[in-house]
Each structure stands twice: as C-alpha cells, then as structure tokens.
Amino acid sequence: MDRRKRIAEILIKLRRDHNMTQVQMAKRVGIAQSTYGMYESGDRIPNDENKIKIANIYGMTVQEIFFNK
Asked: What angle do CA 26, 69, 8 make, to 5 degrees?
C-alpha cells in the first residue's frame, strides 16, 4: 500500500475512534476542512507543523501516526 493511502486510513480511523468530524478535526488543527479531507483521501500529506498538531490531539507521536513506528 502506498504511504499516502496508509496515512489516510490511519487518520480516518483515529478521527472516527475519537468521535470527531472532519470539520471538528480541521478546526482543532487550524486548517480548512477541505485540506483535512485531502489528508484523509490521500491527496496530501500534512506538513510537519500539522503532523505535530494532529499527533498532540491524539496523544500520540508523529512517528506512531505517520511513520508506523
């Protein structure tokens, strides 16, 4: 599986496990919902700053989410 699709699946699962919508997640990260939607569709990978924000929201490390470690 390609890296973008793997990350997209992880982000979808985490968001659903935390009972959040894309709109809620986007607001917490400080980005547009359309941008967050692109992360979940595999069209984009978050920049380093947003990776850190997403990891902090979930209480995880960037490595756990984005590098499968």
From this structure: 35
